[in-house]
Amino acid sequence: MKKIILNSMLILASVLITIALLEIAVRFLLPSPFDGSSNPADSCSTMTGWRGKPNYQTTVATEGYTHDLALNSEGMHDTEHAKVKPDDKFRILLIGDSFVQAVQVVEADTSHQQLENWLNQQAGADRFEVISGAVGGWGTGQQLLYYRSDGRTYQPDLVLLMFYMGNDVKDNLPGRGVTVEGYNCYTSYFVRPGNQLDTAPWFFAPGITPTTSQTGATWKLLNNILGRLYQSSRLYAQLEPLLSTPQLKASLLDFYLGQNEIFAYGFDLTIALVNQFEREVEADGAQFGLVLIPPLSLLDFSQSTSAEREQIYQEIPGMRRAEEIAPPNEMLNERFDSLGLTVLDLFPAFAEVDPTGKSLYFEGDKHWNQAGNQLAGETIGQWLWQTGMAEESD
Predict the structure, then answer these.
(1) What is the pLDDT of residues 50-80, one digit of tens each?
(2) 145, 176 Cβ separation under 8 angstroms
(3) Are 337 and 319 in contact (CB under 8 A)?
């Protein structure tokens, strides 16, 4: 028995040494398995997969609008904010994706800064401080993880989750990542087995089919060990092209087309994540609000003529259901309202026809331009002011 144990230990040691040597060789001898970076402004993050690169600076040109972009020390498109909240400030934390990050415009023109300016003008004093916690491509799960690790440390009085209807449901499905300096950085993801959200995230491990229904604590432990290993092993990264599994996908069209199990799962998962977000924010003693951001495609569709819609129906027959069902913003409003969430839908404000024909989005980029960011910030400010949410909670 002693001989068997000794031989087993020697074999294990040999395997570990071989793997270690291969890891060292890969790091020094082989090039990165993937090309460049999806976005040079991103850096890898253990939990959220990626976030903004601290103190990153570059020049951004969006359809004729050129400016110098500067991210702060937290990798956010914002000025610096102290962790300790001043006694005379009412702090609002905006958490979102690329619409809130708004790298297309200067920081002074972002919706979070426009919101801060509007509220302070109404108060007649420099009483409000609005902090941006937003990174392009983040879904609700990543935003919740950011709140847990960073957002709550700013001691916000109010947290506004900025929900983008265009892709946030899709972005909560597993398997999403970005390439940073030749390596893929995947976000951990949440699972909703049955009707109960697993509030502890799963790490994505290439080669392991991501789960949508929890299969036990042991399997989750093994999955997370591999997920953690991938984040530090260059050998594992080199093997990834041979191991990758297809990503689960969904789109805004699925709101209309229906009969898509993946979208239905993602939709219910998203509702559960928002509900969990509210619970954790309120447990910290802060208020929670949800803001729905309409995509340009939804606005265009709502304002299309009968002939234009008929052309869409010819190309996508399933879209005829749009004549029979509520639009996505109303569907989301109904679900969130049933949970008792406080919701602002920006769709009506953005759908209002401007007689001057002034655009609110960059036409090709499809993000808010200066006018769009201003409208969003001021509309949110009016909502907070009228509902009394811009006040200390009891």
Answers:
(1) 999 999 999 999 998 999 999 999 999 999 9
(2) no
(3) no
Q: What is the topology classification, in CATH, of domain 42-172+250-387? A: Rossmann fold (3.40.50)
Q: How many CB atoms lie within 10 A of CB 148?
A: 15
Give me the residue spans of the domains in the chain: 1-30, 42-172+250-387
> What is the per-residue pLDDT across 207-233, written as a single tens digit (0 to 9) for each?
998 888 777 889 999 999 999 999 999
